């Protein structure tokens, strides 16, 4: 979350999938873990905040993450990322073994 916020503050927009985008007086954002967005409320992963309140809203979400309120969701995302990584490693190994 800190990296995404720092990139936003520095005006960096070179990321493939920016987690924080400001349009006018609104900031649209999501909180990413790996390559997936956390579901913060119901099934919503994208949120909009008034620009002048954005940092306090984002800080409150970060505090909730640090306090463990999203641990179950993060554990599931971490397990999925591990499976994906293992599958990719196995695929690379198979391709390397198939080369003459």
TrEMBL record:
Domain of life: Bacteria
The name this protein goes by in its record: Uncharacterized protein
């Amino acid at each position: 979350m800190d990296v995404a916020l720092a990139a936003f503050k520095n005006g960096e927009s070179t990321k493939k999938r920016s987690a924080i985008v400001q349009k006018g007086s609104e900031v649209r954002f999501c909180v990413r873990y790996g390559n997936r967005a956390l579901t913060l409320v119901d099934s919503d992963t994208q949120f909009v905040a008034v620009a002048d309140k954005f940092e306090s809203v984002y800080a409150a979400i970060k505090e909730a993450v640090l306090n463990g309120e999203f641990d179950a969701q993060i554990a599931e995302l971490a397990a999925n990322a591990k499976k994906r990584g293992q599958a990719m490693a196995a695929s690379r190994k198979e391709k390397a073994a198939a080369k003459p």
